[in-house]
Design a protein that fits this description.
inorganic pyrophosphatase (n-terminal core); Diaminopimelate Epimerase, Chain A, domain 1; 19 helices; Udp-n-acetylmuramoylalanyl-d-glutamate--2,6- Diaminopimelate Ligase, Chain: A, domain 1; 539 residues; alpha/beta; six-stranded mixed sheet
């Protein structure tokens, strides 16, 4: 089974590059992993991927359990032209009480239950047959003698009268289907009348003379081993299943629907069985309500985060097998022990670099370039206080493999990332926005890396208004830090009633929207701890 590897929502360079690098490492060990992203990548990450010629991982919407993950019956459907007996036999074989009907292109055309079959057998019109020649042969376990028509449609009758009475009172036509035993005169009368079909019972056969006449008159003939009574009952069961009172518009579920939505649907409508279809309305099988608890969880590995609020939607429904992170412990828990690797370093890719060394897996140039880029991004080219000797050592080794100069490449990377032209206020704030729990309250922090604060300053009121919108419910405050790594500091914009929190957190003598704070570059080691310390005293 495939395992998805992904970082946090609003992916940054570390979360994306760590996903790709870890997936490469694990696949080299023979595992089946696929890197994913949970949102649009930023300009910096796009530059990095383009620079090293690496395709951006596909987007992952969520990890919620879908119908396709549930163990539904993938053999439970039948063509609507098959017989009633075939449908009933399938129900018995698959231990189901209803079956979806499909056409020759597998499109769902109806739904029939044992209840409808029973109702037909008790009160249906059993004097009519609308089926195929082959259905009749199969239903009575018969043998083909003469066949001229693929489709057989007409009135069924059993030759139970005396021969004289039958001749005098029964007028046979081409629309009649006659079930008869070894009664030569009646057989000759039926052949002369050019009936649609003769079912000859009792394991008898016809004289050559009558076979030749039947062949000339194009009379279909099937031989049955059973007596006329049993044969008649089976002929009725040869009718096409769609000929009885079926549900032509059944409530179905798409194989990409969520399990939780299916449970809500089942509770609302109260049905026991549901056809499963794809987006083309092709039937894939049958889902019983009792099967809803039998499903396979999506296997995932988390990098660069370990909190529910930052992870994929529906992460609680996934099977987390491993976490590689460099942040503080957060809210995610698992039912069984997993590999959890956390180190107090500046970047997740520093940890993954060490994993390459430990497992003696060669690092190709493009993977080295991605991991280097992540380290430079997260440590702000070693200016962040989160930087460790491990980060610097890993970056120096990776730079040699990637064949780039750290200072020159770092400048190009941040220059590419610093442009904010054409990015809306909403998108810029949400580009790297994270929420943190403080007791029963929340703290929102967004960080933007740019060397062009003037562009933001010109529209600062729009940013304040957006932060005011974000501060809803149980949020204490929402703060935006605009970090200029070459100036080695950050400008601060905050929601309107958070001035005193910002002032106390950073010990400012003068506080205003857009205030610059020197040497403030790390969210993890500077911004978050300072704000938490003040907020925790107030809640």
């Amino acid at each position: 089974m495939q395992t998805f590897i992904f970082g946090h929502r609003n992916p940054d360079t570390d979360s994306v590059c760590a996903s790709i690098a870890l997936s490469y490492l694990m696949n080299e060990e023979g595992k089946n992993t696929v890197p994913k992203v949970l949102g649009h990548i930023n300009l910096e990450t796009k530059f990095v991927l383009d620079y090293f010629g690496v395709k951006c991982p596909d987007y992952l919407n969520d990890t919620k359990v879908q119908i396709k993950d549930i163990k539904y019956n993938k053999k439970a459907f039948i063509e609507d032209t098959d017989s009633i007996l075939s449908a009933f036999s399938l129900m018995q074989q698959q231990n189901i009480t209803a079956v979806p009907l499909i056409n020759d292109k597998k499109i769902l055309t109806g739904f029939v239950s044992l209840k409808e079959i029973a109702k037909y057998l008790i009160s249906g019109d059993k004097e009519k047959v609308d089926t195929s020649y082959q259905n009749i042969v199969n239903s009575i376990n018969g043998k083909e003698l003469l066949k001229f028509d693929d489709e057989i449609k007409g009135n069924v009758m059993v030759a139970s009268y005396q021969t004289k009475t039958f001749h005098e009172e029964v007028k046979l036509t081409n629309n009649d289907i006659l079930i008869v035993g070894d009664r030569i005169k009646i057989l000759e009368y039926a052949i002369d009348s050019k009936v649609k079909l003769i079912v000859l019972t009792g394991n008898h056969t016809l004289p050559d003379k009558l076979i030749k006449k039947a062949d000339k008159n194009k009379v279909n003939i099937i031989l049955s081993k059973d007596n006329s009574f049993d044969t008649a009952n089976k002929v009725i069961l040869s009718n096409k299943i769609k000929s009885i009172n079926i549900n032509t518009k059944p409530i179905s579920v798409n194989n990409k629907d969520y399990r939780t939505d299916f449970i809500s649907l089942a509770n609302k409508v109260g049905h026991t069985n549901y056809p499963v279809v794809n987006n083309k309305n092709e039937c894939l099988g049958l889902l019983k309500v009792t099967s809803a608890d039998s499903y396979t969880k999506q296997r995932v590995i988390l990098v660069d985060h370990n909190g529910f609020s930052q992870s994929a939607i529906g992460i609680e429904e996934a099977e987390i097998t491993e976490i590689i992170d460099h942040h503080n412990l957060s809210s995610i828990g698992t039912n069984v022990p997993i590999n959890f690797r956390s180190m107090p370093v500046g970047c997740t890719c520093t940890i993954i670099y060490n994993m390459f060394l430990e497992r003696k897996i060669n690092i190709p140039k493009h993977i080295a370039g991605l991991m280097l880029s992540a380290i430079l991004s997260d440590t702000l080219v070693f200016k962040s206080p989160t930087t460790t000797e491990d980060d610097i050592f890993a970056a120096s080794k990776l730079a040699k493999i990637a064949k780039v100069d750290i200072d020159e490449y770092g400048y190009q990377m941040f220059k590419a990332a610093s442009s904010i032209k054409g990015i809306s206020v909403n998108d810029l704030i949400n580009q790297d926005y994270k929420s943190y729990s403080v007791g029963n309250h929340q703290l929102g922090i967004s960080q933007v890396m740019t060397m062009d604060f003037k562009e933001i300053e010109e529209n600062i009121e729009e940013y304040i208004n957006k932060l005011n919108e974000l501060k809803s419910g149980n949020y204490i405050c929402v703060v935006l830090f605009i970090t200029d790594i070459y100036k080695n500091g950050s400008y601060v914009i905050y929601n309107s009633d958070a001035k005193d929190i910002v002032e106390d957190a950073f010990d400012l003598k003068e506080t205003y929207e857009g205030v610059y704070i020197d040497n403030l570059v790390s969210r993890k080691k500077q911004m978050l701890p300072a704000l938490l310390e003040v907020i925790e005293k107030r809640v």
